[in-house]
Design a protein that fits this description.
heterodimer; A: alpha+beta; Alpha-Beta Plaits; 2 domains; five-stranded antiparallel sheet; four-stranded antiparallel sheet; 4 helices; 9 strands; B: alpha/beta; Rossmann fold; 3 domains; six-stranded parallel sheet; 22 helices
C-alpha cells in the first residue's frame, strides 16, 4: 500500500542525506520526495511517499524516528488528509491540438502559464492520481517535458504536526 | 571565563568527561589536537599501529566497562582505516566516540590532500555524526556525542573536526556542559505498564517458557534483575552470543546460547517452547535460522530499548519498548503480589530439557588422547580451568570464536568480548589490549587463529610500547577453519583459499618484539605451557597451539531449517 509520511527534521546540513540514505540502506523504496523549510527556520518538512505492507511501513517509521535529526513524523495515510502535488508540463500545441489542450486544461482546472507558437506550458495541482490522469489525457497529443514536485500533504481537521 | 583553542577544548573536555585513555594515530589534520594532548597529562593517548586497532581497542574497553571508548584519528586514510572498527561497534551497539581530523573548512570539497567525506562514508554505520562548524561549538558537540553514544541503544558517534576549528590562535570561552538536551532524542526508559503486566501473566501461565536474553541486558546493566526473575520463576535461560554472561552459566537454569552453533539444548528448548521472553535481543538471522520455521508454537514477548528492533525479523506478540533493568524490575514488583508459575507444567518442561541436556552430554567432541593432535575445544576448556572462568575472554572471528563461546563458561557480564554482529577478523588482539590496559589486574585472554591474528599483528608493537601483557592463545589449524568447514560441507571439500601455506614462525615473530612465545603440539605440553603463561603476570605471552585442522564446529544448524534442525557431528543430525 502507498503511504505518505511527513517528517519534521532539523534544518541542518546532512539531515536530508540521513533520511534518504536510510531508505537505500534498508532497501525501502521512495516514490516521491519533497523537502522545504517551514515557518520555523530550525525545521524542514520532508514528505516522502513509499510503498510497502504494514510491516515494512512500521519499520520505515521506526527507523526514521530513530534518526537524531528527525524531530517528529506522521504517516498521513493513517487518517483523513489532503495530498497535493504540483506539476509543470510542456505539451505540443500546434494545429487543432492547440484548442484540445486548452479544453483539457480547463477540464482539469489547470493553468497555461507560458505560451510559444508550438507549445503550452501547463501548471496543474492535485493529488498524484489527477496529475497522472492529465498526463494520460495529453499523451496522444504529445508531452514534451514533465517537472513534478512530489507529494506534499497535511492532515485534515484539528490534527497538527508541530514541535 | 577561560579562553581555549578548539584543540585545547578537546583535551580539556575529555578530562572533564572523565576519559582516561584515548586510542589513536596522528596526522596532518589532527596535529593541533595532538599538540594539545602533548601539553597536558590527564588524558593518556595510546598510539596504535593502524587506526582500525584504535577503534577495536576503544571497543574492547567499552564492552568491558560499559563506558564509551574514545578514538582520535586524522582525516582521509586515518578516518577510512577506522571504518571497519566503527561498523563493528555499530553492529554490536557499543558506545564509542570517534574524533576525526578533517582538512581545513575552506578546502572541504576540493579533493584536498587526505580529504575524505568521512561523515558521508560512515553515515550508515553510526548512531549519529557531527561536523564542527565553529570552534565554540566543540564542548556542546562533544557532550552530545558522548550522550548519544552511551544512552538508549548505544552506538558509535563520529565527530568530524576541520583543522581550522582547532587552530591554536583562535580562542573561545570554554565551559564544560554538564548536560545537553536534544529535542529529537529522548530514549525510552520505562516500558508500558499494561504490556508488562500482560507479559508477566503470560510467563506465569506458560507451560514451556524460555528466557532469551541478549546484549541489551549487559549494556543495560540488568543481569542481576534478570537473574532474580529467572530464579523466582524457575525459568530456563538462553542468552544470545552477545548476552553471554548476562546469566551465570554455572547455574542449572542456564542452557547456553542458541543459533547456528548454539547448544543442542538451547536450540531444542527454544524450538519447542510455548513462550519466548526475549529481552535485549534482536532475533538476528544467526539465531533464528529460517524465520518462517522459528519457534512454531511460541508466543513472543520482546523487550528492547530500540523500537526498530521489535518485530523487525520475528513478529512480537507482546512488544515492550523500554530499558531492560526498568522493565525487569517492574516485572519483579508485579510478581510479589501474584500467584506462582504453572508448577506441574514447568516440572515436565524441565524434565524434557534435562533430557536434551543429557542426550548430548559428553558427546560434544572427541578429546585428543596423548600423541594425537589437540582439539581446539579442549584447549578452551583448559584455559577456562586455569583462569577459573574469571578472565576477560576476547576472541577474533571464526571456528576459535565459536569454540571459545561454547567451552568457556561465563558467570559475569562484560567478560565475553567478541565481534558478533559484523564478525570482524582482526578485532580480538586490539580489543584485548584495550581491556588489559584498563584492567591491569585481571587476566585478559585472547583466543585467536592464525588467520585473524595476522590481520592485526602489527599491534605487538603497541603492546611493546605500552607494556600490555595479554595472553594470546593462537588456535593454529593452518587454515581458515570456518571457511574450510563450509567448504567441507557445501563445496565437496574444495578448499579454495582457506588454507595458509606460508605461515610465519610465530615464535620468532613474537620474539622479535621481545615477547615470550611457546609452541604447543600435544596434550602433555598444553597444561605446563598454560601454567607458565599465566604465571608470567606482567608479560605478553603468545601460545602457538597447533590443533586438529579437520575439526568442525558442532552443533551447526541446517540452512533454511528450524532451530531444532542441526548437524551434531560429521555423521549425526537431528
Amino acid at each position: 500500500m502507498r503511504h505518505i509520511i511527513s517528517i519534521l527534521m532539523e534544518n541542518e546540513p546532512g539531515a536530508l542525506s540521513r533520511v534518504v540514505g536510510l531508505f537505500s540502506q534498508r532497501n525501502f523504496n521512495i516514490e516521491t520526495l519533497n523537502v522545504a523549510p517551514t515557518d520555523d527556520p530550525t525545521l524542514s518538512r520532508l514528505t516522502v511517499t513509499t510503498v510497502g505492507d504494514d510491516r515494512v511501513v512500521e519499520q520505515i517509521t521506526k527507523h526514521l524516528n530513530k534518526l537524531v535529526d528527525v524531530v517528529k513524523l506522521v504517516d498521513l495515510t493513517e487518517g483523513a488528509h489532503i495530498e497535493r502535488e504540483l506539476m509543470l508540463v510542456k505539451v505540443k500545441a500546434t494545429g487543432s491540438a492547440r484548442d484540445e489542450v486548452k479544453r483539457t486544461v480547463d477540464i482539469f482546472r489547470a493553468q497555461i502559464v507560458d505560451v510559444t507558437p508550438s507549445l503550452y506550458t501547463v501548471q496543474i495541482t492535485g493529488d498524484a492520481g489527477k496529475l497522472d490522469a492529465f498526463l494520460q489525457a495529453m499523451g496522444p497529443i504529445g508531452v514534451l517535458e514533465v517537472a513534478r514536485t512530489g507529494v506534499s500533504g497535511i492532515a485534515r481537521g484539528e490534527k497538527i504536526l508541530s514541535v | 571565563m577561560e579562553l581555549l583553542s578548539g584543540a585545547d577544548m578537546i583535551a580539556r573536555f575529555l578530562k572533564d568527561e572523565g576519559v582516561e585513555y584515548i586510542y589513536g594515530y596522528p596526522g596532518g589534520a589532527a596535529l593541533h589536537i595532538y599538540d594539545a594532548l602533548f601539553r597536558q597529562d590527564d588524558v593518556k593517548h595510546i598510539l596504535v599501529r593502524h587506526e582500525q586497532a584504535a577503534t577495536h581497542m576503544a571497543d574492547g574497553y567499552a564492552r568491558a566497562s560499559g563506558k564509551p571508548g574514545v578514538v582520535l584519528v586524522t582525516s582521509g586514510p586515518g578516518a577510512t582505516n577506522a571504518v571497519t572498527g566503527i561498523a563493528t561497534a555499530y553492529m554490536d551497539s557499543i558506545p564509542m566516540v570517534v574524533l576525526c581530523g578533517q582538512v581545513a573548512s575552506h578546502l572541504i570539497g576540493e579533493d584536498a590532500f587526505q580529504e575524505t567525506d568521512i561523515v558521508g562514508v560512515t553515515r550508515p554505520i553510526v548512531k549519529h555524526s557531527f561536523s564542527v562548524r565553529h570552534p565554540s561549538e566543540i564542548p556542546t558537540i562533544l557532550k552530545k556525542a558522548f550522550y548519544l553514544a552511551s544512552t538508549g541503544r548505544p552506538g558509535p558517534v563520529v565527530v568530524d573536526i576541520p583543522k581550522d576549528m582547532t587552530a591554536p590562535t583562535e580562542r573561545y570561552e570554554y565551559v564544560y556542559p554538564k548536560k545537553v538536551k536534544l529535542r529529537s532524542y529522548s530514549p525510552v526508559t520505562r516500558g508500558h505498564a499494561g504490556q508488562i503486566k500482560k507479559a508477566v501473566d503470560m510467563m506465569l501461565k506458560a507451560r514451556r517458557p524460555v528466557i532469551f536474553a541478549g546484549g541489551g541486558v549487559i549494556s543495560g546493566r540488568a543481569s542481576e534483575a534478570l537473574t532474580d526473575l529467572a530464579k523466582r520463576l524457575n525459568l530456563p535461560v538462553i542468552t544470545s552470543l552477545m548476552g553471554l554472561g548476562a546469566y551465570p552459566q554455572n547455574d542449572r537454569q542456564s542452557l547456553g546460547w542458541p543459533g547456528m552453533h548454539g547448544s543442542y539444548e538451547a536450540n531444542m528448548a527454544m524450538h519447542h517452547s510455548d513462550l519466548v521472553f526475549g529481552i535485549g535481543v534482536r532475533f538476528d538471522d544467526r539465531v533464528t535460522n529460517n524465520v518462517s520455521k522459528f519457534c512454531p508454537t511460541a508466543k513472543i514477548i520482546h523487550v528492547d530499548i530500540d523500537p526498530s528492533s521489535i518485530s523487525k525479523s520475528v513478529q512480537a506478540d507482546v512488544p515492550i519498548v523500554g530499558a531492560a533493568d526498568n522493565v525487569l524490575n517492574e516485572m519483579l514488583g508485579l510478581l510479589s503480589s501474584r500467584e506462582s508459575v504453572n508448577q506441574d507444567a514447568l516440572e515436565a518442561w524441565w524434565q524434557q530439557i534435562e533430557g536434551w541436556r543429557s542426550e548430548r552430554a559428553g558427546k560434544l567432541y572427541e578429546p585428543a588422547t596423548p600423541g594425537e593432535p589437540l582439539k581446539p575445544q579442549q584447549v578452551v576448556e583448559a584455559v577456562h580451568k586455569i583462569t577459573h572462568g574469571d578472565a576477560f575472554v576476547v576472541t577474533d572471528v571464526g571456528q576459535h570464536q565459536m569454540f571459545a563461546g561454547q567451552y568457556y563458561k561465563f558467570n559475569k557480564p562484560n567478560r565475553w568480548i567478541s565481534s558478533s554482529g559484523l564478525g570482524t577478523m582482526g578485532f580480538g588482539f586490539p580489543a584485548a589490549n584495550g581491556i588489559k590496559l584498563n584492567y591491569p589486574d585481571d587476566d585478559v585472554v585472547l583466543f585467536t587463529g592464525e588467520g585473524s591474528f595476522q590481520m592485526m599483528m602489527q599491534e605487538l608493537s603497541t603492546c611493546k610500547q605500552f607494556n600490555i601483557p595479554v595472553k594470546i592463545i593462537n588456535l593454529n589449524n593452518a587454515s581458515l577453519g570456518m571457511v574450510r568447514q563450509w567448504q567441507d560441507l557445501n563445496y565437496k571439500s574444495r578448499h579454495a583459499h582457506s588454507y595458509m601455506e606460508s605461515l610465519p614462525d610465530f615464535e620468532k615473530l613474537i620474539e622479535a618484539y621481545g615477547f615470550k612465545a611457546m609452541t604447543v603440539r600435544t596434550l602433555e605440553e598444553l597444561e605446563p605451557a598454560l601454567e607458565e603463561a599465566f604465571r608470567l603476570k606482567d608479560e605478553l605471552v603468545f601460545l602457538d597451539i597447533h590443533v586438529d585442522p579437520r575439526e568442525h564446529v558442532y552443533p551447526m544448524q541446517v540452512p533454511l531449517g528450524a532451530m531444532r534442525d542441526m548437524l551434531l557431528s560429521k555423521t549425526e543430525r537431528t
